[in-house]
Structure formats: structure tokens, C-alpha cells
UniProtKB/TrEMBL annotation:
Residues 1-155 form the N-acetyltransferase domain. Belongs to the acetyltransferase family. Keywords: Acyltransferase, Transferase. Gene3D superfamilies: 3.40.630.30. The lineage of its organism: Bacteria, Pseudomonadati, Bacteroidota, Flavobacteriia, Flavobacteriales. GO terms for molecular function: N-acetyltransferase activity. CDD domains: NAT_SF. This is GNAT family acetyltransferase. InterPro entries: Acyl_CoA_acyltransferase, Diverse_Substrate_AcTransf, GNAT_dom. It holds the Pfam family Acetyltransf_1.
Length: 156
């Protein structure tokens, strides 16, 4: 297995992983991003994200997408948007290799924190994160405002 930074040409396979994750998270129709969006936003003059992929026998079997954030308490931090491994390839150390690559990426840049979200029912992931030393916060809630809600609020 090889873990490397993604190339623009990898984005069709990365999008397929994103769609597989949406199915796993019980949101099969939620993916709106396109290959063109991923290519434009990840590989332009000012890329909005960095993506790492795991390759096994010339097939991309996992991906981790990250981007920089700024914390008023910590300064520059990293957000792990998604860590995805093909269902048929789980349990082979692919997720851990991607996770380690993300943590090394943050460490090498002197970042103060890496943050991400995990669904409360994804107990396998939660156990893995806790074993790695991550602090899974139970007192914070993730807040989203989707496009429809945003429009309604702005126009109210």
C-alpha cells in the first residue's frame, strides 16, 4: 500500500469514495460536489484543500481530505473533513495509514490542533480515535446551516 498526496487525475476516484461515504453515513443523495469542483478547488492557484490517497494494486482505496482553519485560541489548525476507506478494504490498516499521514502533515507544519467530526453511532471510528490519543468531545455540538436555511435566514 502507498499513501501519497492526491493528483488532479485522482479526483474521479476520490468522488466515488465520497459517494460511498455518503451511503455509509445514511445520506446517499447528499453529495453535490462534482469532479470539476474537486479539481478546481483542490488544484488551482490557491487550493482550498489537500487530499491524500491510499493506493493498493494501482487502485485508490482510501482518501483523506484536509484544509487549514484558524482558531482564535490556538492559531492555525487543520480540519480533517473526511477519512474514507472502501468498505471492502476496511480492517487492513488503510485508514490508520491515512490518519497517520494527516497527523504527520499537521505536525510537520507546527499546527496546534487537528479537528474533525465523527457520528455518534460510528463506534469503531470513535474507539480508534480514542486509542490514538484524540479527545472525542461530548459537550460540543456540530452546527450546520444549509443553503436553503441560509437563504431563508438572510431573506427574513
Amino acid at each position: 500500500m502507498k499513501v501519497r498526496e492526491a493528483l488532479k487525475k485522482d479526483m474521479p476516484q476520490v468522488l466515488e469514495l465520497i459517494k460511498e461515504l455518503a451511503i455509509f453515513e445514511k445520506e446517499p443523495d447528499a453529495v453535490e460536489v462534482t469532479v470539476q469542483d474537486l479539481e478546481r478547488e483542490g488544484f488551482g492557484e490557491n487550493p482550498l484543500f489537500t487530499c491524500f490517497v491510499a493506493e493498493l494494486d494501482d487502485e485508490i482505496v482510501g482518501a483523506a481530505l484536509v484544509y487549514f482553519r484558524f482558531s482564535t485560541w490556538k492559531g492555525r489548525t487543520l480540519h480533517l473533513e473526511d477519512l474514507i476507506v472502501k468498505e471492502a478494504k476496511r480492517g487492513k490498516g488503510i485508514g490508520e495509514a491515512l490518519y497517520k499521514k494527516v497527523m504527520q502533515f499537521a505536525f510537520d507544519r507546527g499546527l496546534k490542533r487537528v479537528a474533525w467530526d465523527v457520528l455518534d453511532w460510528n463506534t469503531g471510528a470513535i474507539r480508534f480515535y480514542e486509542r490514538s490519543g484524540a479527545n472525542v468531545l461530548s459537550t460540543w455540538r456540530v452546527v450546520h446551516m444549509d443553503e436553503k436555511s441560509l437563504k431563508n435566514y438572510i431573506n427574513s
